[in-house]
Write a structure and sequence with these properties.
CATH architecture of one domain: Alpha Horseshoe
Distance between the termini: 96 Å
Order of helices and strands: HHHHHHH
Helix content: 55-70%
Largest sheet: none
CATH topology of one domain: Serine Threonine Protein Phosphatase 5, Tetratricopeptide repeat
Shape: flat
Number of helices: 7
CATH class of one domain: Mainly Alpha
Number of strands: 0
């Protein structure tokens, strides 16, 4: 009788221990999946934008940077994508309005950075970009083409041939018209050559300014080395 009672108590304890083990952790506990942060995915989009930019596909790069800048909530990625978008827009600008809009993006990006310039800060080019935008806008106000000339009047037929040709269909002399057309095209070519020379001059000026900035940067680095060296 006592033996049966002991066996019964032992069985109850074993059952209770099994239940406690199942509740406290011997069985796997379900944990909800952790949502992956969008940072890595956004970095991939940013990387694709850089790759397209380096390959010369500026339109695709502009799309990557623009879409990422609109969608991201990460301040760092927002700033990087805005800078990429601005550079793409500056290069893709086809008229003064496009360039002015790109300068607006440049100013918006500049405001996201610390106010003080340091190192090889791209904002050192801000005065040059604004000057180019102003000169391009002023140039756009000047009409590039002369108003079209009226087509030349048809020359009257000679007096001795006027009567025989009254019933014939008149054939206008278009040589004068073509001469004026050629002259107008020559003027267009002259204007294009003038603008081309002006752009070359601006490019040379920009190149000299960049070289000057590089020289200043090298001098600063040398000064830092002299100060840091014992």
């Amino acid at each position: 009788m006592i033996k049966n009672s002991l066996l019964t108590n032992l069985g109850c304890r074993l059952c209770l221990s099994t239940l406690l083990a199942a509740v406290t952790g011997c069985t796997p506990i379900y944990t909800p999946p952790i949502s992956r942060p969008p940072y890595s995915a956004e970095m991939q989009v940013l990387k694709k934008g850089y790759e397209a930019f380096q390959q010369g596909d500026l339109k695709t790069a502009e799309e990557f940077f623009g879409r990422l800048h609109q969608q991201t909530e990460n301040p760092k990625i927002s700033r990087h994508s805005l800078y990429g978008l601005t550079c793409a827009r500056l290069i893709l600008a086809e008229d003064p309005d496009d360039f002015t809009e790109a300068i607006r993006l440049w100013d918006a990006w500049s405001q996201l950075l610390p106010p003080n310039l340091s190192g090889d800060d791209p904002r050192l080019l801000s005065p040059l970009l604004h000057e180019m935008a102003e000169s391009g806008t002023a140039e756009a106000r000047v009409p590039e083409n002369d108003p079209p000339d009226d087509p030349p009047d048809e020359p009257p037929p000679p007096a001795n041939e006027a009567e025989p040709r009254q019933n014939e269909k008149k054939q206008p002399d278009k040589s004068a018209f073509y001469k004026k057309l050629i002259k107008a095209r020559e003027k267009d070519i002259q204007r294009l050559n003038y603008r081309l020379e002006k752009m070359k001059k601006e490019n040379r000026t920009l190149k000299h300014q960049i070289e000057a900035l590089e020289t200043i940067h090298l001098n600063i680095q040398e000064k830092k080395k002299e100060i840091s060296s014992p």
